[in-house]
Amino acid sequence: MAPENKKQRKPAITMTRSDRASLSRLAESYVMRNPDVADVLMAELERARVVEDARIPADVVRMGSTLRFTSDLGEGRRVTLVFPGEADIAEGKISILTPIGAALIGLAAGQSIDWTARDGRVHRLTVETVDAPGIVGAPPAPAELRTAS
To answer: What pTM, to 2 d.p., does this model score?
Structure first.
């Protein structure tokens, strides 16, 4: 019987080359400000299988993805994974520089991962669905173009 405090093996993750480059720079810039979250993000980047942007499966969480996940707390949430400047919890925009954001990157629909909340408690989440983002890095269309018919 395995001890209960034994760490679960983390699931395999996949990341685009551009996300890895952007997130590596971001993590490095946060090492002095928030070393704990920078270390968690760097660990995820190091273990990720990196693929060309065009070769990432549609059901893999990447920057800008909107996904639905369930947690061991019994809640289901729909969120979008974003860079820190875009984060807005009221709109469901989760920063990559949060423990849950760093845990989500690279997971595919159906995968589960344990993550440690800021209060030190370990939680488990399972990605249910992933909606691929638009063109990564492209600015949103101006409002007048989005409403034009």
So the answer is: 0.81
